[in-house]
Design goal:
2 copies of one chain form a homodimer.
Chain A lengths: L8 H8 L3 H9 L7 H14 L5 H8 L4 E6 L5 H16 L3 E6 L4 H13 L4 E5 L6 H16 L3 E6 L6 E5 L1 H14 L5 E5 L5 H18 L4 E4 L4 H13 L6 E4 L2 H14 L8 E3 L16 E3 L2 H13 L8 E4 L2 E3 L9
Helix pairs in contact in A: 1-2, 1-3, 2-3, 5-12, 6-7, 8-9, 10-11
Chain A binds a DNA duplex (30 and 30 nucleotides) through helix 2 and helix 4.
DNA sequence: ACCGTGATGGAAAGCGCTTTCCCCCATCGC
DNA sequence: GCGATGGGGGAAAGCGCTTTCCATCACGGT
């Protein structure tokens, strides 16, 4: 049972009657070739003993591991889980294992995880959207990342190019601006934006992009209501907006989750979205595509973004930082019908 | 820069003018105590050199790691990402890193991951719902798991107790049966079930539980339409059902995703759910709580399940297998109004 | 004054691999 | 027929830690 300690390579070598070196070469490949006959003997011995290589030992001897780290704010958020899904699939193709780090949006945790991944000698790290305007924290993260990179690690980020690493840049500004323009062409004239916390970059960028588009086209800035960057935040923000007497004909929630909360708030207040008021979101979360009325939003290829981030981080390192821009596509649905 | 190889413990020891042993004891704790003065010197040296322990080396020396593996079918599915979220949070509390393995429902991948986790000498493995009726595959997984356990590993499963490990058993049967009873008490009499593939245990159990409840109360078995265990599967199944002329007043989709697809199919067919037909799901996926009409479903405490699974797998090992039952709670919403 | 005791520091033996050398021997060219 | 050549096996040196086993040293009891 659990008594007999796991077979080691030496056990296999002995069993096969070859040297440790040969066993290693036969089992885990190398540039050196082993005579087929011996190779077979080693393989047989290994399977007979139920040998499983010790990845930690290999990591030590080889000086490199087969794991990559992924930092997300909240894996149960569909935005991140979709990215994670794409990244995980790509990782699997490369034979890499993914270390999932759920930061919960806590800077302390983020740093702890970064340290842990470094300790693990992870081959690469992908940071997904933990961007904040908190300069102090961003600086600390940049510092940790830099020493990780100096130690031979690779890293990439998803979202804003604020860290000294390659990044998959999501065009939040452009997407939101395009959405604003689209809403205007649909006939809307008075808008409000439901935003997340001010120091959340995604939120700030989307808000700014939308405002810019709106301002350019109508000459006026949309109103703004801030709350949490979540379903409930959207609900609260929308409720507040409605209470204040909504002098608006359309509302842009900076992400789909907030938009869905807003939808619910409208429903509760007896406001019919699509007829009385238009609502739009951002991300095009898959599980949210069936809400009613269908939510107008900006589609982001989330899984592809995850895949891309991994490709970026595993590809040829380059001297200068690379940015891979990703543009969203405005998807119009029933929540923003053309206005007569 | 990247030239100077990372500082090792010996570097720190030398810098601090102490032995390797002392440095180790001072930095990574142990039962042995180090004089405060020395301790401080070591800490200073470490920080001066930017020392980061090598987890792989520690794993080798200690014979144990700080990682746990999590196998899920598809992390981008909210069911699994919620479980993963709960588990990840719990792992963080224990200072453990989570290896995320996305099997994509492919048996081959599942086995590969299991082997990989064993190679990594993961402290524990949690298998989340990859249960299938495929006996051959289940047997192979059981085999891999057993040798992993024999090697001193710990493992737990979420869903059905089919593997030789502790498991968080989700009472799919009971939940579905309770749902059936509830629907009947609401006045429904003719039901249909939208199921996933036959060899998917979750689906089969929910169907059976529902059928049992229905049969006991009405004396008749609900009709059944099978398709994929996904939103689109639900959509297709429901479309087919509607085409065949629906002699039913309520439909149970074996999970929320399918139910939402069904909702969409109804909408497209001009059938108003809540008035013309009732629809219910299972899981109570958070992001789906705002669909309209509100979906009646069976709530599962997904995050808690993830947490629990980790607790189970990290707790005192026990001789006999433990099962931790989890019961869902029927949540009635507008999609199944009382029938007059 | 002497020896048992407990607290600490250090030397060194691994942990399980990979990989560099080194060496042997069968081939090959002339 | 003989040295050069190279394919392929093995010994052994790490990789960076932890931990056992000693060795010291300062006390306290008698």
């Amino acid at each position: 049972m659990a008594g007999e300690r796991a077979a080691t390579l030496s056990d296999v070598a002995r069993e096969a009657g070859v040297s440790l070196a040969t066993a290693s070469r036969a089992l885990n490949g190398s540039d050196r070739v082993v005579r087929p006959e011996l190779q077979e003997r080693v393989l047989a011995a290994a399977s007979k003993l139920g040998y499983t290589a010790n990845a930690n030992a290999q990591a030590m001897a080889r000086g490199s591991t087969e794991t990559v780290g992924l930092l997300v704010k909240d894996i149960s958020d569909p935005y991140f889980s979709s990215i994670a899904g794409g990244l995980a699939d790509e990782a699997e193709k490369h034979g890499l294992l993914v270390m999932l780090c759920n930061t919960g949006g806590q800077p302390e945790r983020e740093k702890k995880f970064l340290a842990a991944l470094r300790r693990q000698r992870s081959r690469a790290i992908v940071l997904a959207g933990s961007d904040t305007a908190d300069v102090r924290h961003t600086g600390e993260v940049a510092g940790l990342l830099t020493s990780y990179l100096d130690g031979g690690g690779r890293a990439a980020a998803i979202s804003q190019p604020r860290l000294p690493v390659d990044t998959v840049v999501i065009d939040n500004h452009g997407g939101a601006k395009a959405l604003a323009e689209r809403l205007i062409s649909l006939g809307y004239r008075r808008a409000a934006v439901l935003t997340g916390p001010e120091d959340l970059l995604v939120s700030a960028e989307r808000q700014a992009g939308f405002a810019e588009g709106w301002l350019e086209a109508t000459g006026s800035e949309p109103a703004t209501v801030g709350d949490e960057f979540s379903r409930d935040g959207g609900h609260r923000a929308m409720s507040r907006l409605l209470e204040d007497g909504p002098d608006v004909d359309c509302v842009f929630a900076v992400n789909d989750l907030m938009a869905v909360g807003a939808l619910a708030a409208c429903r509760e207040a007896g406001v019919e979205v699509g007829r009385d008021l238009a609502v739009a979101g951002f991300d095009d979360i898959e599980t949210l595509r069936d809400v009613t009325p269908g939510l107008t939003t900006v589609r982001l290829p989330l899984a592809a973004i995850g895949r891309l981030a991994l490709e970026l981080v595993l590809g040829e390192p380059s001297a200068e930082l690379r940015n891979k821009p990703i543009h969203g596509e405005v998807v119009v649905r029933e929540s923003t019908p053309p206005r007569s």
